[in-house]
Structures are given as C-alpha cells and as structure tokens.
Amino acid sequence: MSRRRDAVGLSERAAALERAARSLAQIAPDPVLDRAHEVLGRLEDRRALSAEHTVVGFFGATGSGKSSLVNALVGREITRAAVRRPTTAVPVAAVLGEEGSDALLDWLGVADRHVLDGSGALTDGDPAAGGMILLDLPDLDSVERGNREIAERMTGLVDVIVWVTDPQKYADDVLHHDFVAPFAGHDAVTFAVLNQIDLVREGERDAVLASLGSLLRRDGLERAPVVGVSAQTGEGLETLRAQLVEIARGHEAITLRRRADVREAALGLREAADPAGLPSAVRPADAAALAADLAVAARIEPVARAVGASYRYRAAGHVGWPVLRWMRRFRADPLVRLRIGQGAGAGGGTSGARSGRAGGRGADASDEALARTSLPRADAAARAQASAGLRRLADASSRGGTDPWRAAVRRTARSHEEDLPDALDQVVAGADLRARSTGWWWPVLGVLQWLALATWVIGLGWLALNAGLAFLGIPPPPMPMIEDLWIPIPLPTAMIVLGVAVGILLAVAGSGIAAAVGAWHRGRARRVLRARVRATAQELVVDPVDDLLSRASATGADLDVACGTRR
C-alpha cells in the first residue's frame, strides 16, 4: 500500500513539474527548463523498464577502490582492479535477477554484464533480496574525457548513488563541489562509503567518518548513511551489503530517486524564476490609472467637445434665425470633420442609413471595425503618457516579484502596444455617440421661427405694397393702427418689429437650450468613450497581465507540489 501511495505522489509531483516547466517557458533560463524536461524524460523512461531491479551505481575518484569494492560485495571478480589508472573504462554490471534486466541495461548503455546466481556474497542466498544491478563506473576525475562523461551521465540514470572515497581524498573540494553537492536532497538513495578504512588508525576512524559526514551535510545530504569499509580486509562490507539489500528489497529506490530528481528540478526552477511575491491580480486603481492615460492618447476630450459642438451646430440649423442660417454653409459639422458618427455605429447617421440600404445585413459590426476617424494622431506627449501608463501598470502589477517574472509582466503589458493606436481609434470610430440625435424642441422652435419670419415678411411686404401704390399715385388702403400702445403704430410696422424680435429671442433661447443639452451630450460622450477605453485597456493589457499573474500563482502551487512543500 505504501508503494502505491508513493507512486501516486510521484506522478502528481511529476505532473506538477511538467506544468510548471511549461508555464515558465520564456521566463526561466533555457538550461533550467532543459534540466526539468530531462528529469521528466528520464522518469518516463525508467517507469517503462523493470521495477524489480534496483540499479546501484558506484562513483568515485581515481584510486578510491570502486572496482575492488564491487568485487568484494558480489564475492567474485567481475571487474579488474589494478595499479594502472584509470582501470574501468566502461560500465561493468553485476546483475542479480536476470529476468527483465536486459532492457534496463540497454537503456543504461551497459554492455559488460555479469549475471549472479543469487548464492554469492551479495545476498547470501536471501530470496527476498529482490533484483539488483551493481554498476562499477569510470572515475569521475578520469583523465579520459569519455570516461568522465559516462560517469556523469550515469549519475542521472541509476536508482541508488554510492559515493566511494578514501582517507586521502574524502575531503577533496572538487569532488564535493562538482559531483556530490549537485545531488543535495537525494539522501534517501545516497550512500557515502569510505573505502580503505583499514589504512586509518583504529582510534581515528570515528573522527574521519564524522568529518566525512559533516562534509556531506554541508553538501545538502543531511541523512545519507556513511559507511567505513575495506575491500581488502572485508571490514564494514556486511553493513554496506545489508543496507543495499534492504533498499532493494523495499523496491522504493526508483520512486525515491525520481522524487528527489523532481524536487531538485523544481527547486532549480524556483531559484531561477520564483513566482512568489507577485500580486494575485491587477489592482482596480492601477487599471483605472491606465485607462485615464489611454484616454488622453485616444483624444477623448476633443471628441467629447466635438459632440457637444455638433449638437449645437445642428440645433442652430433648426432653431436659429432663418435669415442667418445660410451662414452655416461656411462651417462644417465638427463630427463630420472628424469622420465620427458617419457609419453604422452613428445611431441613425445618413451614411449608416445609406450603407444599410445598399448592403442590407452587410452593414453590421464589420462596418464599425473598418471605420476610421480623421482625428490627428496622438502627439508625442500623448504617446509618451500612454507608454508611461503601460509601464506604471506593469511595475505596480509585478512589485514584489523576482526579476524574470517582472520582465514577463512588462512584456505582457506591452504585448499589444503597437495595436493600441488603431484600437483607440476604433474606440472613437465605433462608439455610439448619438451623433445624429435631435431634440423634441427643435421642430417646436423651428415652427415658431418660421411663423416669426412669416410675420416679418408679411409686415415688410405690406409696407412695401403701400409704398409702391403711393409711388404710382394710387391711394393706398387705410393703414390699420395699433392704438393700445403709448404711441399708435402701424400694424405692418408692428409685425416687422415683432417678427424680428421674436426670431432673435427664439434664436437666443434655442442657443441657450442647445448649449445646455450639448453639454449633456458632451458629458455622455465622455462617459461612453471612457467606458470603451476601459474595455480596450482591459482586453489588451489588464486581462493578459491578470492571466499571467494567475499563471504565476498556479506555477507557485505546482512548484510547491513538485518540491513536496504543498501547504
């Protein structure tokens, strides 16, 4: 049952490491990612091979006596030990339990194989010892580069690592720094063997072994067993043999080794690109500040002012004094100049109506997507403000994170920077600004204006007719008089004065009403455009950054699982 729980735990950790490595692509350095993928690949390969065999690799420097130790453990000479160095040039395998071992040895790349009959010194005929493969490997410090490469490659493949050293070299800094320390955390599948213990005086052996143990703890191997042996005298061999048989009997070395590898790879990813410290999402205040900066780049204020001015302009065409309306021909509608409110999104614009008649259902949102304004491009100051807004949001949203993640947040925040000008132009071009909207009071004042004009024209015509008749010597008809005023006034004159006065008063009143309603439309346009800018900022900047921050949180959780530190 315990082995099943271990296997499930390893699978979960491996899956978490795979997710973390995938998430950290383009964030963590490639060598660290490659190491994680290598660990995962080896894990899958090893799972597909014999689980009944525990592979024990004997590693050490030149002269440590690895070959003699392996020979002593198996009770026969399977590898040659000699004074000439290096002796072992290729891996040599002592195989206990031949069935199922061939594919495993092929994967290890070991051709020199010696099958043990099970009755030798290694297990003393214990049938419960299980399958075991002992590998005598080339020296880690061999002068032959190929030998070193074989030994280094095997450190990543074997299930159990046995570091073999001797009283002269056990404290060698190169051995510990280059070969032992990288396997920190592999305590459960690591043994340290001090060979040639017979060369150390009896009273000094405990001190030497304790010194080696302290060096291993410094290397990160807190609980790795330290065994003093002598391949020549047999001292300590029984202790080492019993420990190797015990770990092989439990069939847990494969899981323990790969779990340690997964943890080491996850720690490497965390050290290179720790996602801890980042906020969980973009703060609303930072998103609002970005939207305000982008609103400047989108020229929202000029557009909002143009919406108000357009309303006043069009209102003047309906409620202004008819005598002076012709002067509007010399001025264009402010929104028409900007090519705003002329498409399908204009809320009733003439161009939109024409395109609707011409294209039927074709005049849909695609027209809005293709629309462009004639607004001048944002000046350098506006562009700089938008760029600074992106930078401020990225800095605020990555505060507390490590450098790789801060850089990733900055890249993500700026990933659509080139698209922002067009997107902001579409914010304006596609907005429903009610650019063609009218007021119920326009026709009312318009009718009154025409009545006032008619009154003025009739009065003027009446006086002109009387003047013409008098010029021709024809007696004009009696002139009606208005007697109720402080002085009598001819009715045509009163009509002229009344028509002009009412027309001007209606124009002034209409202008005031248009200014008030235009201000409301300006405010509404500002609100609509700001909302669209916020939506654009959310889509192109905030959402991608939020996704990255969520990814960072998930990556942190996956690294916790892979490291075995899930809370």
From TrEMBL:
Origin species, per record, is: Brachybacterium phenoliresistens
Q: Please list the residue ranges annotated as the G domain.
A: 56-171
Q: Which GO terms describe its biological process?
A: ribosomal small subunit assembly
TM spans (from-to): 450-474, 494-520
A single GO molecular-function term is: ribosomal small subunit binding
Biased composition, Gly residues: where in the chain?
Answer: 342-362
- UniProt xrefs under InterPro entries: GTP-bd, GTPase_Era-like, P-loop_NTPase
Q: PANTHER family from the entry?
A: GTPASE ERA, GTPASE ERA, MITOCHONDRIAL
Give the UniProt keywords, A-Z: Membrane, Transmembrane, Transmembrane helix
Query: The organism sits in which domain of life?
Result: Bacteria
Query: Keyword ATP-binding: yes or no?
Result: no
Cellular compartments per GO CC: cytosol
Give the protein name, as stated in the record: G domain-containing protein
Q: Which SUPFAM superfamilies match?
A: P-loop containing nucleoside triphosphate hydrolases
Spans annotated as Disordered: 341-368, 392-414
